[in-house]
Amino acid sequence: MEKSPTWNLKDLLSAPVRDLDVLQKEVDDQVQRFEGLRERLSSEMPAETFLEALRLAETITRSASKLGAYAYLWFSENTKDQRARSFKATVEELQAGLANRMLFFDLWWQKLDEANAGRLLAASGDYAYHLETIRRFKDHTLSEPEEKVINVKSVTGRQAVVGLYDILTSGLTYHVKAKGRVRKLTREDLMVYVRDPDARMREAAYRELYRVFAQNADVIGDIYKTLVLDWKQENLGLRKHRSPIAVRNLLNDIPEQAVEALLSVCARNAGIFQDYFRLKARLCRIKKMSRFHIYAPFREARKQYAFKTASAMVLEAYHGFLTPYVLLNFKGDVRDVATLAHELGHAVHGMLAADHSVFTFHATLPLAETASVFGERILSDALMAGERNKAVKQSLLIRQLDDVYATILRQAYFVRFEREAHRIIGEGGTMDDLCRVYLAELRQQFGRAVAVPDEFRWEWLSIPHIFASPFYCYAYSFGNLLVLALYGLYKTQGESFVPRYLSLLAAGGSRAPESLLKDFGVDIRSEAFWQAGFDTIKGMVRELEAVA
Ligand SMILES: [Zn+2]
User: Fold this and answer.
1) Around ion ligand 1, which residues have CB less than 5 A away?
2) What is the pLDDT of residues 309-335, one digit of tens each?
3) Which of the residues 2, 275, 395, 470 has the least number of beta carbons within 10 Å of its own beta carbon?
């Protein structure tokens, strides 16, 4: 068997345990200097001193995240490696300690009166949005000693429990009979079979996945309950957020009204994907469409693209945009070409936003995939336009619609389930209750078009985001639907759209998503806006029908 690739971590740190000491000392000195600024904080302080503190905080954040990135990558390379695990624990403890020593600054800044906060904000340049973000949490922040206790305890609490989930689930193995012999597989290898041309293999893969998860359902279910109750105690009980999802909305800086509009428009449009899966069943000659087969491949046309042709196509599609370097695996099918366009999008986004501080460089989560998915859309259109072969056209559309389903509707339904799950667990519900609700949501999502076998009741146990980052998944629905809408604008406005789009990307994470999108005349609180995204998807399904 081929050895799985390891991350090249040399750029980050060469000998972790030794370098940890050096880096720790360096960060410690910086934090000591930062602590020295404490008595200089006052409502009348000069902007220059304030900026000095921010610049120092930025340097510290950069060093600390370097350590964190290493610990995380090493751990995810092999979650069973004892040294990686203990290194990760050490780094997490260290980071919590640093955060606690710097906490006074945020607390002071949150309490500062409006007039002086406004004065310092006006002088803070690129740091402004970061500072606004801190103040956004003002009503939900506790006293300094309380915050310190939460920071310390969450390393051995919440973070440790999420770590146990990772260790447990990544250690699971699966057995599938393929080509006459039983093979032992990792989850990643197993999931390849859900796209197998053979229907029996697709079904066997899902059955095996959920057989194994069902076996571990007691422990994983308890992990989930612990995380949900922790979320509730801290965020609702102590911090007084209005609802479990309100925390995530505040972190994303997306108004509740926009999230509600997004989720309800998604549920209302589930029928579009039901139509799609009916059509797909016909095109892929699947007698009875079931959840086992939604990712079945369309076998007629498997077109191969040479790397040279592919990069030429992608660059042509990106005409007028920037072209940095991207590293990826390339085997030549259309999925690889799309990945090329996707990664190039991320690279373009990074280059355009490169001038921002550590605090304002990364676009907030719901906008983080804008450039990459937009790049895929441009490419798809170019491929479709240049294609004469009917089967290839169908296969392109099917691939896109499968992706659109998985990144939009599926994600929205995860979050709908989470809302229910947090409520159920808060009211003392059981594992059976959770599974029943999950299955009911799935059946509502697929209607009569796609049969949902009982074992899919365990599916939620296998979705890491639901455990590690509650309500995270709506950001995918948000980002992907948004891109469909922006792409629609691009097609109607042409060249005049490009400079505005580039400045959206260049903003990185330096402005609130809602205000950035207002520049396009987009109102994320309006259902009509999200509906427009689904109208585009409906158009794609019609196109597929027409080609067929
Ligand atoms: Zn991406």
Assistant:
1) 369, 372
2) 766 766 666 665 544 445 455 556 667
3) 2
